[in-house]
Amino acid sequence: MSESTKYFLPEDQMPKAWYNLAADLPTPVPPPRHPGTTEIISPDDLAPIFPRAVIEQEMSTERWIDIPEPVREICRLWRPSPLVRARRLEKILDTPAKIFFKNEGVSPAGSHKPNTAVAQAFYNKEEGVKHLSTETGAGQWGSSLAFAGSLFGLEVSVFMVKVSYNQKPYRRALMETYGATCVASPSPQTAAGRAILAAHPDSNGSLGIAISEAVEVAASRDDTKYALGSVLNHVCLHQTVIGQEAMLQMAMAEAEPDVVIACTGGGSNFAGLAFPYVREKIKGRSVRIIGVEPSSCPTLTRGQYAYDFGDTGKLTPLVKMHTLGATFMPPGTHSGGLRYHGMAPMVSHVKELGLMEARSYHQTECFAAAVQFARAEGIVPAPESSHAIRAAIDEALRCKAEGKAETILFNLSGHGHFDMQAYTDYFSGKLQDPEFDDAALAEALTDLPEIKG
Amino acid sequence: MSESTKYFLPEDQMPKAWYNLAADLPTPVPPPRHPGTTEIISPDDLAPIFPRAVIEQEMSTERWIDIPEPVREICRLWRPSPLVRARRLEKILDTPAKIFFKNEGVSPAGSHKPNTAVAQAFYNKEEGVKHLSTETGAGQWGSSLAFAGSLFGLEVSVFMVKVSYNQKPYRRALMETYGATCVASPSPQTAAGRAILAAHPDSNGSLGIAISEAVEVAASRDDTKYALGSVLNHVCLHQTVIGQEAMLQMAMAEAEPDVVIACTGGGSNFAGLAFPYVREKIKGRSVRIIGVEPSSCPTLTRGQYAYDFGDTGKLTPLVKMHTLGATFMPPGTHSGGLRYHGMAPMVSHVKELGLMEARSYHQTECFAAAVQFARAEGIVPAPESSHAIRAAIDEALRCKAEGKAETILFNLSGHGHFDMQAYTDYFSGKLQDPEFDDAALAEALTDLPEIKG
């Protein structure tokens, strides 16, 4: 088996429980707080927008949480996802390093997102919800929830960040194929959207704005709940099937990673691959864990670790995280899924504890890596995932320079089939690396909420 | 294992030889003839456009032809492809039938086409060719050859049928990502293209025209050969890995197909899945084998079995096949890969021998099947593949009506990620089922070449 290119687990070895890092952290993640009072919130405060089971998972410190059988059954459509040895890339780089990647692009929607979408749709269905509202950046999350909704007979409404809505009409078509509706955000359908449109009629939108719209819809309709595709603890939890599978598959390949890499937008694909390895690291194992983000939205590398709102409209609970400020507006790059002002509180906490590293790259150097990867391995990656590829290639080149035969594992969080305009723009030279706006960051950070008591 | 959803073969069970149906046919396929003299052609006649090894395979009657190890190594990037049991679709249809599909959409270019593209690129590289020219309809073949060319350092030029070029800009972007160049056909770059443009400036193009352009380029440049993505014997040969794998995987699933289904454009994905089963059928096994084509381009169901040109420009050898006439211009439907006036001579011969059935569907009923499939199984199929899905669903419904627990196996030849405009058009009601033009067919058939001697 160790000479294979792809490592598949049998379906009966798909994880039966999610791994909850909260059980193993040396200090707990700071709790969420009420956006008005700034008091620590109770489960009841979240009940208008999330189902009970999801709220329990959000607050849980149990190490293992059983995956319901109907969720596992649906995930068998594509899981366990393959672990792949990038042999051709290794050869082209002429590196002594071994490069492995977990291919989450094999899912119906083309990314890791269905891992949590199916779970969230299941719990909502169980609790009698009829309709889910959500936001989406690049469209990966929206199409994942559309897919999951179609399997459980739930109506799904997606607010899609306008810059991506215009760049990626076929993501919208995919959501509609799964039976969901999709509108550009900011939209005139919500008070939050109308307020932004009044102040900035040409707004490109942002994940923060789209979240405000989706939460508003959920809070104002009895049959509707909200579903979030990243950031929160339960989302990170649902993604841990990735890392659990990877560990079994790395054992099949008779290899152990020295470096574990994933891109970070809201943090969930990173958490999915990395948290099982963070657990090992806490137990004393030597492994470097690297989160990779865009230089245009450098949450972990330039953000402040502070309580902040998850959305621009300041409707969500306050969570302690690395943030650029809820009003920070990232430029309209092609990595829509990484254009978020904050970071998963649990990932932020892991960073503060020194259990991970973070680095940032400009988009053109990521596209160069993506094209090199596509021409070696055949798979055209999502622009988001290309950040992880850039870091993996750089680590492999470092190994070459240092003469070290390390093992590198990265998460290929999704394919780029719906992102080809980005590649067209890259080849035509139209893609820019926007200059980072230090003043805008400084201003957005002055706006962080003050915590009382 | 029999309770699984997906059946994976280990990489070392990937076929080591291609299966050549010519060895088992009760009567031989009529040989190709020279377009000028109409004499039976010799291998030398094909030498200007194909490499020697490919010409040998085209004419071979050996039952098994070894797959070169470098080809197998590259195919391990995605092969063996999964066999999937469509359990959710079965449930929704409430049918006693078992439905299996072979998922060729997992390849880098998203269809079965790389199976032959890699082999053809390998043989050309071995014989010192620097540049490959080809045509593409929907873009599946062009992107597959672009991918294969990038792996072997070959320059690739693709003539893309204009209607698809305009419908599918992201297929072009995919080819460019793999390093190929792609122009709309008819183009001003060739005499064949200029002649069409002079007569029909608004021509939508057709596979027949694009073939003329690509062959012209190959014939006129010493460092250049032509590569064809379907129709010819060697292409059908290279695709037989599909059916060979499927047989092993059906055994893993402890099932045997009563019905084997694939869509037919040029015939290669059909041949790939079906020919190993045709062999069994010749040996006496009871199995129905069904080719499914668009009602707008009904080669097998309404064409004439006769010698005809493979292209509109009348440059190619004459082959005996089911044809609508080389000048027949199919309407611009969304199944670009099925818009071909002819059919693989070997598939045509199998049809004449009564070893297969053929049927045709309108595109809207195929899209309805595609959406039902996507909402059940998560995978959005290529419009071409939706023809096979339509037939599989209809067979499953027949089983329900007749109370028969048959086993149905179809080829999901590709995914539809680059065909989302077609889905958008379908949902908006813009998709039409064009009325078949009987007079145009009759006229095109008057133009069939006369065979001397």
UniProtKB/TrEMBL annotation, chains A, B:
Gene3D superfamilies in the record: 3.40.50.1100
Entry annotated with the keyword Amino-acid biosynthesis: yes
Pfam families: PALP
Pathway noted in the entry: Amino-acid biosynthesis; L-tryptophan biosynthesis; L-tryptophan from chorismate: step 5/5
Catalytic activity: (1S,2R)-1-C-(indol-3-yl)glycerol 3-phosphate + L-serine = D-glyceraldehyde 3-phosphate + L-tryptophan + H2O
Keyword rRNA processing: no
Keywords linked to the UniProt accession: Amino-acid biosynthesis, Aromatic amino acid biosynthesis, Lyase, Pyridoxal phosphate, Tryptophan biosynthesis
Modified residues (N6-(pyridoxal phosphate)lysine): 113
Residue span, Tryptophan synthase beta chain-like PALP domain: 77-414
Names of the cofactor(s): pyridoxal 5'-phosphate
EC top class named in words: lyase
Gene Ontology MF, one: tryptophan synthase activity
EC number of the protein: 4.2.1.20
Any one GO CC term of the record: cytoplasm
UniProt record similarity statement: Belongs to the TrpB family.
Function: The beta subunit is responsible for the synthesis of L-tryptophan from indole and L-serine.
HAMAP family found in the cross-reference section: Trp_synth_beta (MF_00133)
Subunit relationships: Tetramer of two alpha and two beta chains.
Name of the protein described by the UniProt record: Tryptophan synthase beta chain
